[in-house]
Amino acid sequence: MHARAATAVAAAVAALALALTGCGAEVGSSGSGTSGDKAAKGSGHYPVTVENCGQKTTYDKAPQRVVTNDVGIAEIMFALGLEDHMAGYVMPDYKASREDVPWKDGYQKVKWLSKKQINKELVLDAKADMVFAGWNYGFGEGDGFTPAGLKKLGIGSYVLTESCRNGSSGKSRGVMPPLEALYTDLTTLGKIFDVEDRADKLVAGFKKQVADAQAKLPKDGHRPSVFLYDSGQDKPFTAGAYAGPQDIIAKAGGKNVMEDVKDTWATVSWEAVVDRDPEVILINNYGTPNAEQKKEFLMSYPPLKNVKAVKNHRVFVLDYVDLVESPRNPSAIAALAGYLKEVHAG
Prior knowledge:
This protein has helices at 14-21, 37-40, 71-79, 104-109, 120-125, 147-151, 178-192, 196-215, 244-251, 270-276, 291-300, 308-311, 320-323, 329-345; strands spanning 25-27, 48-52, 55-59, 66-69, 86-90, 112-114, 130-135, 138-139, 156-159, 225-229, 237-239, 255-256, 265-267, 280-285, 315-319. It is of the alpha/beta class.
């Protein structure tokens, strides 16, 4: 997954804000735009002001050359039908299937810029006017790839809402429930790109998909306890209160045993896992080791031998893109709900 680091986004100076306004955005702290087709035709939609991770940005025109980082972020753009506003996407080739999704055409239409880490040189070469990434989903101080750094190059940024920093420690992320973060990004991007009707339709459809899954849950109130295992052998890497799995587990009828961790993704101890004795382990599948290798480790790791999920071989697998903020979250809820219903019945 991603390393966690701390920062505060620097405030824009007046001259820089003026320069970026010429590119289509009046910058409060992040954002950009270039000439948009609807704006050029005098649609009356622009200027539009949005808030992203607490920072307000006014767009005079829709960005035209967006570069995205990571699979869930690219698929948010694809789901909104914004392929023509993209210069390309960056992501490893192991992060997702690109064939069995409703927006697979997006992967065919938009250029795959790199399978490696996103960087300034890459987005400059792509002539990007906006980078859509997240803190530790591309943005991070370690390599200087930040919204503030991009702003100095005349490139705007949109920060994935799941990754917004909450200010509690300078390191923690998460300012709202994970599904709300997805709906917020869809709605906000709908305003930026003047596709609000499309965004509203997506959000309504996703909410109905979740509601339909919940309507089939057992009515006795029991919620099987679930531990999300991402990676790690000395210490496990898992999902806290603000990561996608929190809402996926809860809305599927389960209880995240690490919901008291007030962060998105975080490292905990095996002792904490044993103490909470989860009934189900949910594996995040990506890269190496793969899901089967992770399962073999968990089933053979001595400290876990008496944990209910291990004793009963109750392990469920979802892919990385299902578990980070993405348009696949609602279908992941439906899939996990079906499994937890079987656990409940068994």
